[in-house]
Amino acid sequence: MAETPTRHVHFPGMDTTVLGADEIIINMGPQHPSTHGVLRVKLHLDGEKVIGSECIIGYLHRGVEKIAEHRSYQQFAPYVDRMDYVAAVSNGLGYCEAVEKLLEVEVPPRAKVVRTILTELQRIASHLLWLGTHALDIGALTPIFYCFREREEILKIFEKYCGARLTTHAFRIGGLQYEVYDGFEQDVKRFLADFDRKIDEYEALLTTNRIWVERTKGIGVLSAQDAIALGVTGPVLRASGVKWDIRKAFPYAAYDRYDFEIPVGSNGDTYDRYLVRMEEMRQSRRICLQAIEDIPAGPILGKVGKVMKPAPGEVYHSIEAPKGELGYYIVSDGTTQPYRVRIRPPSFINLQAFDTMVRGHLVADVVAIIGTIDIVLGEVDR
Amino acid sequence: MADEPTSKQPEKRPETSEGQSSAREPSAQKPAEKPAGEKSVPPKKEAPAPWPKPLDNEMVRRFRRRFGDAILDALEDRQQAILVVAWERLREIAEYARDEEQFDMLTDLTAVDWPKREKRFDLVVNLYSFPRNERLRLKAAVGEYDQPPSLASVWAAANWLERECFDMFGIRFEGHPDLRRILLPDEWVGHPLRKDYDILQQDTAWVRENLGIESGQ
Amino acid sequence: MDAVVEFLKPHWMPLLWAVVIVAVLPLVAGYIVLLERKVMADIQARLGPMRVGPHGLLQPIADALKLLLKEDIIPANADKWIFWIAPLISVTAAMLALSAMPFGPVFQIADLNVGLLFIVAVSSLGIFGIVLGGWSSNSHYALLGALRSAAQVVSYEVAVGMALVSGLLLAGTLSMRKIVEAQAEQGIWFVFLVPVGFFIYLVAGIAELNRAPFDLPEAESELVAGYMTEYSGFRWALYFLGEYTAMVVVSGIGTTLFLGGWLRPFPNVAAFDFLDYLPAVLFLALTGYCFYRAPKQPVPIQKAVMGLFGLLCLGLAAALGWSVTLPAEAMARAGILGAFWFLAKVFLFLYSFMWFRFTFPRYRFDQLMRLGWHFLIPVSLVNVMGVGAALVLQRQAGWPLWQGLVLGTVVTLAVAAWLILARQRRPVAAPSAGGEV
Fold first, then answer.
1. Residue A97: half-sphere exposure toward Cβ, Cα within 13 Å
2. Which residues of chain B, if any, have pLDDT below 50?
3. Mean pLDDT score of chain A, rounded to an integer?
4. CA-nearest residue of chain A to B20?
């Protein structure tokens, strides 16, 4: 083969080969306990202080966008679950809605409401996983077990609904895959009934804990301007003080029916992001409580044919996934297979802010910052 | 100037991709040439496609006033605004969109490969405006060896997105601070999201080289 | 041969005890690990080890076997000899420190007249094992862990020393045995006389042990495993043994100096004599529980192990019960009961170490240093001065000791409060404040 170009170490704005006496380059990952998968971070350290960083990603790249070009619209739907695999329901919702928009299909209200409930449960589950791992990174060993205890309840509901716990493929283009099972409402209600108290429990462990506050306040500060310039979305953006949530900005599914608040932070630090996500869980619970009260009767599937041939054209549709704006840009050439599916992965774009957030901090803060961005490498790498 | 493109749009309506193909050269818009170049790309359907429709609103007129010929087309597809622009002036237009039109966030930047066209790539830039709660899509047709200007100086978010675009399509962005592959290893051969990139090819080549057999499939 | 026997005769008891410590300690450390896992499981709303033996009682043995059989990897670029010897230093230092530890009035290898000094000095040598191990691994993570560990132990040694001095001033001796006897004479544990000193000792002791929330040298989420990153198999187990032995040492010092060593609660009050029966009753209850649970175990071998464990408890109960029947001045009685109380207090310490570990997040390195230098050391200095002043007032001005100590404690607490408030008034550290160390 031809000569392979060597990978150059690159730290923006500094000479790459000359290191000072106190400087070391340390590789965090791809096998590291707190890089949340196969993220590799090359840290340029002065003692323990980070003076530069580079994220090296792609270890989990599976070419999802290429696969899409060789599948029909329905066939591709299960693949999107594999991106953000801790929030598969949200991925599915985004994809199905994008294709529905492309097809210009109306989804029946019953399907919309059930979709909303499941997606909000998924948001809670995703945030719980984030909370547990984030706390674990900062050294609190216990919250993760409490979080998994509650997440388990949500996964059980998913399992009862569609048979799968993680990669659910819960929705179908045009509506729902399945009618909800008997006792779905009771299950959701039972979970929501004391979930509020459970959040209090996590907060009791962390929110006012001196060490927690010291470890998170003022860490990884991202100003609103930086956040917008870097395209950061989701809780990270909101913690920087930008009150923006796609559920309010471009309401999809049945979100326009329900009352909920968008929590915002002010300092844009790790602590604010923590508070924002905690409050988001409460708001998700609120949405679910409203939605579960009256699920409209009716069909669960809109008028879609067995063979989907959207008119040529293109559409961009995005939803507020637990991690940020999850967008699908689909180009149709009028055949049964998408000509191009572009996925806007929130984790990927949020991760780009990592370097801005981490400079000047210590090694210990690196893990706190990786945790607070809330990335899933399946989605970063796709 | 404003009238010129709008008047042409009705002709283009039957085909989605036509808008972009016509965008390749602002000066030479010969209607006769377009169908010839395009015929084989999208399979033609009997019913005329409902989208895209021409778009003409205040914002589009502002863009046209400011950039004239560089705004090649303005379309609406599924209620989503699309501006087809010339890639040479993409950065200027992006700066204008950010500063004057308040499109302060770069949501996404990607490309679509149309290998049969003269300019094979559509560069797609999705913008969002917080003050206006609006989205806008900029599209620019880029030839295989063209070097569109990098938007990394306009939105920091473009850095990785352009790297990914380079990685997947091989579009070289001029003025990008650090244009390397991002998802694939540096020594990867080819750009996978191009339409002529065969999924099996890489695999077979690897198998042949490393295992010494003809194919692993 | 006769000469050797003659030489050994006066020393048979310490020798026996030394052999017992070296032989049994690894097992004990294993069971402390099991206990820790059980405590952790309880705090985290789960069961913990349940498979190997009833309630996981054989888990430590299975773990030890596994570690023994694992491949012993020495990285190619490591400094082989140092890498090899470093864990041994850690273990040896920790075990050596036990030699002057009085596990009761009888079970003590050597009652040195500088006992406490010896223990503190020897146990701090353990840091060499960590630093050398981290350095010789030739890995960034290990090196960072080792450096953190060195800085941390050196810093907190001061606070620990000062906290110990506050107790020593009251005891007036460095001999571990005499310290306990002083508490028996004065009729009060020193923890009630110098609570601040005890608190500082507890916090700084955890930091010295590199345990959560100060476990930065091995912070697994940052440095993978810190200085132990490159270690595997039995060498890794040796580090663990060293760490858990050091836990026993630190607990032992705290118990001796602040919690009255082997003395039972209210040693001089006859009304509390019934407490002497408590150990026997406790073990009897445990025996009953084991026998009650044994038939319910799912597998015959688990039934057997549970039964054996019950028998062990019964034996202990018998020994403890038998010792109570002896006359008060019998050595066996004092020895057995004393050992029970000493170990009970040590386990109290261990439990609190575990409790903290599973409750608190981890400090960051600069915060740890700030806590040590800006808070614990000044407060411990003031505390020592307070105790000293109380003693001077007692001797020169005839004040009752407790009055002086209350005054000293109040002053110390005021200083501590001032330090905390002054810290809070300062703005939150800017991101680049990391270099403050």
1. 25
2. 1-45
3. 85
4. A313
